[in-house]
Specification:
- With about 325 residues, the protein is of the alpha/beta class.
- The protein folds into 2 domains: about 170 residues, Medium-chain alcohol dehydrogenases, catalytic domain (Quinone Oxidoreductase, Chain A, domain 1); about 120 residues, NAD(P)-binding Rossmann-like Domain (Rossmann fold, 3-Layer(aba) Sandwich), CATH 3.40.50.
- The chain has 10 helices and 15 strands.
- Strands 3, 4, 5, 6, 7, 14 and 15 form a 7-stranded mixed β-sheet that branches. A 6-stranded parallel β-sheet has the order 10-9-8-11-12-13, with helices on both faces. It has a two-stranded antiparallel ribbon with strand order 1-2.
- The radius of gyration is 20 Å and the shape is globular.
Amino acid sequence: MSHAIRIHQTGGPEVLQWEQADVGAPGPGQVKLKQTAVGLNFIDVYHRTGLYPLPLPFVPGMEGAGVVEAVGDGVTHLTVGDRVAYASVIGAYAESRLIPADRLVKLPASIDDRTAAAMMLQGMTARYLIRDIYKVGPGDTILIHAAAGGVGLIVCQWAAALGATVIGTVSSDEKAALAKANGCHHPIVYTREDFQARLLEITGGKKLPVVYDSVGKDTFMKSLDCLQPRGLMVLFGASSGAVPPFDLSVLSQKGSLMITRPTLATFVATRPLLEENAADLFDVVGSGKVKIYVNQTYALKDAAQAHRDLEARKTTGSTVLTV
């Protein structure tokens, strides 16, 4: 019998329950996947707490990697034994699962399962942030909050490889050193420095074309003040809490600013979009321009402790739950 983490009511990490799960055979268009590794992401916390509500009960988790055990009718691009990975499909905290085959991508031999599980959601998020929403290039200066986190480290490396100057906020000197070693030219320790004031010192008073903010409530308003006229605010998370409602006329007062609240699912909604995004990610990781750091590993059954550490900001880079 397989096992999975299931949530019957929203709340703290204690609601993550390790239970038996009967997976069954794949239906048309599905694959039965024996998972080897599962990625941990802040969206898992949002689902667990109910900030992003899901019908109860549910199995959390949005990305993983493993081996195809069985294929359903109509599946032609995958066969038993294929190594595959996915992101943005709920239900990852499981030893084995059924999943739509068109959401899976084959893994190149150069990328191991733990790396794949750690990078799919965060890496494809980084890709749409800096290649789709705003095409970062030489001469750009960007701000990325939580620069030592999973998405942050990938954005720092990738943007630097594209020729951009990267400014990033972090919570400690240790995280500043990590971010700096991975492409962040100017880490700012926000716990002792006003990041907006420090940013303007770094740039000589020049504001930025884009800010990437996954922190939310604690950074949002000051982030707006880091943007040049017609600058773009990309709010893609809320680790400090949701941004309170505010008067949209503020955007005009601060220079006709633009704001977007994207989600990965939209940017990989079709098979061609998914394949394009994943191919770019595999290429940049395979080339060595971006390194994926799996800095924490927990057994899947210990997901509650992983959530505690993630929320306490004790983690850096990527975290993987092993099966």
